[in-house]
Write a structure and sequence with these properties.
The chain has 254 residues and is an alpha/beta fold. Helix 3 runs parallel beside helix 4 and helix 4 runs parallel beside helix 5. The longest helix has 25 residues.
Length: 254
């Protein structure tokens, strides 16, 4: 991935990792467009970062995604980087589920169908460029799940698998496919912003940006804090890591 001179769309860019990436990428000389549901929050970020643009997007709505893709093609035809970052995370008690599975369905639609739909809608535009990049933001929990957020972890595992297939299918094109795999980071997701066990957001963004500068860019962007989850199975530590993770976090969800 080129480190500068790109036009980049980041979903979920109004807060957390999305905002951190947006600001860091703009500081490197990229034109950044952030998208998300909350217009007021997007406007706050844009106001704090002159030159950044924003677009309202309901990632659960396929009609809105198609409309956004058309607007991007018209207003920002130079778009050459898509970062699928938007996601939601909710605790679920699988022992006490009702007929209404709205939480699980919203998580699947936002975290998995959203990136798939947006990628499909924008891929024709991306492929017009000499160089383009698709980056999917998954999670360390794709590799070792936090049992109290089962659907979130399942969608991130599915997104990891989808990313591998997308990379393979685009291997002979000018579009590269990367995956950012965050650890537990101090963001508003599941009220983790003040949790001392989570990696500070600024430190996470700084380390991630350094990895993105590596040439050639690694297919998976893994800061050191996520190695314990990402490579647990490969290194024969899965069972112990699963038990340790869920035991350590049980107090937050039970």
């Amino acid at each position: 991935m080129q480190s500068t001179g790109n036009t980049i769309l980041i979903t979920g860019g109004g807060s957390g990792i999305g905002r951190g990436l947006a600001e860091a990428l703009q500081a490197q000389g990229n034109h950044v467009i952030i998208a998300g549901r909350r217009k007021a929050l997007l406007e706050e970020v844009v106001s704090a970062n002159p030159g950044m643009k924003s677009l309202v997007l309901d990632i659960e709505d396929r009609t809105t995604i198609r409309a956004l893709a058309g607007r991007i093609a018209s207003e920002h035809p130079q778009l050459n980087v898509l970062i699928n970052n938007a996601g939601i995370m909710r605790a679920e008690d699988l022992k006490d589920q009702q007929d209404d599975l709205s939480d699980a369905e919203a998580i699947v639609t936002t975290n998995l169908l959203g990136p798939i739909r947006l990628t499909a809608a924008l891929l024709p535009l991306l492929r017009k460029h000499e160089h383009s990049t698709i980056i999917n933001v998954s999670s360390g929990l794709a590799f070792v799940p936090l049992a109290f957020t089962p659907t979130y972890c399942a969608t991130k595992a599915a997104l990891h698998s989808y990313t591998q297939s997308l990379r393979y299918q685009l291997r002979d094109t000018t579009t590269e496919v990367l995956e950012i795999i965050p650890p537990y980071v101090q963001t508003e997701l599941m009220d983790g912003a003040e949790d001392p066990r989570a990696m500070p957001l600024k430190a996470y963004i700084a380390e991630t940006m350094e990895l993105l500068k590596t040439q050639p860019t690694p297919a998976e962007i893994c800061v050191k804090n996520v190695h314990g989850l990402r490579f647990a199975a490969e290194e024969g530590r899965y069972d112990g890591t699963f038990q340790g993770l869920n035991g350590a976090m049980a107090g937050r969800f039970e």
